[in-house]
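Chapter review: from sequence to fold.
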Amino acid sequence: MRKHWDNSVTAAGEGPFDCRSRQVRATQAGARAGTPAPRLRIGDVEIGPATVLAPMAGVTDTVFRRFIRNLGGCGLIMTEFTSADGVLRAKDKKAKRYLHFYEDEHPISAQLFGSDPKVMADAARMVEDLGFDLVDLNLGCPAKRVVKCNGGSGLLRDLPAIGEIFRAVRAAVKIPFTVKFRAGWNDDNIVCVELAKMAEDCGLCAVALHARTREQGYSGNARWEWISAVKQAVKIPVIGNGDIRSPEDACAMVTQTGCDAVMIGRTAPSNPWIFRQIQQYCGRVGTAALDCPVGPSSDSPYDEPTEADRYEMIRTYFQMLIEEELPDAVGKMKQFASWFTHGVPGGAGLRKAIYESKSAVEILGKVEEFFERTLQPVAVTTAHD
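The token string follows.
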């Protein structure tokens, strides 16, 4: 049985804040290689393909977002989660840096966290004024430093407080307002369906569920049945998140849950091609549900990167970091080295050389030296008697 994207299509909504009837635009126009996955409409913003780069602290800065966007296949990118209090403090340069983006990043969503409705509303207005396409509320971060301030997944224990934030932010901005949340605080406190219904009633335009509890953190398996329950409970788009490690996983999630889009987090740094591979998989395999014929047979339903591809990817990302002049460029290079060199023959030696380097330019030189040496064609010699 072939896996496929299986999404419904309905008419557009009636008003700027009435997003309840806006659904996926399944516009796959053939099954040739590179055919886009179905498109998603969140409020008045069209997302195509229906894939989302999850917000990740220390990862999804402007360099990584543009890097992913340039590789292709990602419909929506999101900022690192950003403190609403920090956004409003004039001296908080870190928060301002989190919200820095370029024109080629559209469509882009800014994710905020906080527990004060007025502060959240004021920060959302600032996000709108900066030109973001969407604003998102983080109710998923499990970090203790965030939870102890009643932010992130800490708010899952107080649904009335979440409702106040929903209403305050919705009244403050005209751009689509969404929320990303976990299933609940723990297995004894599963609130995802109730929370999704409340979001819809408050005029939010989409919900994204990471199908784990706060208590789980990132351990164990994501419970996709919770995504299915949320999808059945609301009419606004539902984005599924959790345990998508391959294109097959992405299509399996949509098939099993009926969700309108998939959000990918930790897989993206280790396999930045995942979004493009999902797009290729949808196009090459085809889907009867979307009235598309099965595509032509191929050895693989999506492309796997070669060593030369991986070299170009690492070099491009590191060069982008240097050009952006980020204060933590060296640290990011060392952080990403373990992800980007995963599966590379001799990668351990390259990682060691990167970790021992002192500057961004030195790190880039080590990368170029390693790959130019390993990618050189082996000289052919002829034995003579």
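Two observations follow directly from the output. Residues 1-36, 287-297, 378-385 have pLDDT under 50 and may be disordered. The chain has 15 helices and twelve strands.
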